[in-house]
Design a protein that fits this description.
By secondary structure, the chain is mainly alpha-helical. It contains four helices and no strands.
Length: 104
């Protein structure tokens, strides 16, 4: 099961990497931070192995911040698809990391 989740996470990362950032959302992300860059980086780190406590907390906080942003993008169809794809990837990265912690 964990191996399947890791494969799916790698696939989601590849698909997400092909998406363009929504042009109307430059400089509008919360706290002036690129959630896409941060969460994609956390996903890559998750694929490489278990996250340390600091990175795990960073992933959780940024995923929660993205969840708060989602209602604001609802009027923009492309942005919605982009940020939902990012959110799904972040949630799965958390699940993979949590499963690894249970196994260890």
């Amino acid at each position: 099961m964990l191996e399947h989740q890791i494969e799916l996470l790698a696939q989601l990362l590849e698909e997400f990497g092909a998406l363009r950032f929504p042009p109307d959302w430059y400089d509008r992300e919360p706290q002036g931070e690129s959630l896409a860059t941060t969460l994609a980086g956390c996903t890559v780190a998750t694929l490489d192995g278990p996250l340390d406590a600091r990175h795990r907390e960073h992933l959780r906080r940024r995923r929660a911040l993205l969840a708060e942003l989602l209602p604001a993008v609802a009027a923009d169809t492309y942005a919605t698809g982009y940020f939902v794809a990012l959110y799904r990837m972040a949630v799965l990265a958390e699940e993979v990391d949590d499963r690894r912690a249970q196994v260890a």
